[in-house]
Amino acid sequence: MVCFTAAAQATANSSIIFWTEGRRLQLQDFKVVNDSMSAVEDNVSALTRTGITYYLTTDKVNGRPVSIRITVEATVHRQNTFIKERVLDYNASVKQRLLIHEQKHFDISEVFARQAVRDLQNLKLSANYRKEIADFVQTKFKAAEFYQRLYDEDTQHGEDFAAQDEWNEKIAEQLEALEAYKRKTVVKKL
Question: In what order do the strands lie in the sheet with 82-84?
Fold first, then answer.
């Protein structure tokens, strides 16, 4: 899923949460659903819908595009982010472990958003730049989806604590390695 958004900052009541350093997912970021809800697998306690959202701003001279700004963001879409009702009865440490697992899904989207910024800097664009950028982001999103599935499989949705610890470290290292791309706006001359 590739999302388009207007150039606006998310508010606390927004349906979209933009990844920012220090901002961690909390229980109130999730819709509480009945334990039998079909949108969330039986063996899963939560579902976090993350994405890579981007928007374009075109600078024109005499009506002709001369440059574009591409902003790429890692996002969580609250309307499709669920936590099962049973989680509310878990003890604090189990809830915390679950939230860390879900935060890592968000962090993985941030890793791919930063990779997109890095790769967009070298992407050659033509007059058909809107489609080229959309295709590029769609490819990056598909790679992120694959990686998200791998993360869930390896950690057994956070239930394999040793694997979860390894992924926590791996994702932190990836974010650090891509630190130079955390300002996620690329300006391209046309």
Answer: 31-33, 82-84, 46-47
Q: Give the contacts of 52 (CB within 8 A, at least 6 positions apart).
A: 2, 3, 72, 73, 74, 75, 109, 112, 113, 116, 137, 140, 141, 144
Q: Which residue has the tokens 């979860």?
A: 164
Q: Report the number of distinct structural domains present in the chain.
A: 1
Q: Which residue has the tokens 């024109």?
A: 60
* CB neighbour class for 16 (10 Å; exposed up to 12, middle 13-18, buried from 19): middle
Which amino acid appears at position 106 of this protein?
F
Tell if the pTM clears 0.85, that is, is over it. Answer: yes
Q: Which domain holds residue 65?
A: 2-189
How many whole angstroms separate alpha carbon 3 and alpha carbon 51? 7
Per-residue pLDDT tens digits for 109-158: 999 999 999 999 999 998 899 999 999 999 999 999 999 999 999 999 99
Contact criterion met (CB below 8 Å) for 74 and 17: no
| Type of residue numbered 174 | Q
Q: What is the 3-state secondary structure (H, E, C) of 161-172?
A: HHHHHHHHHHHH
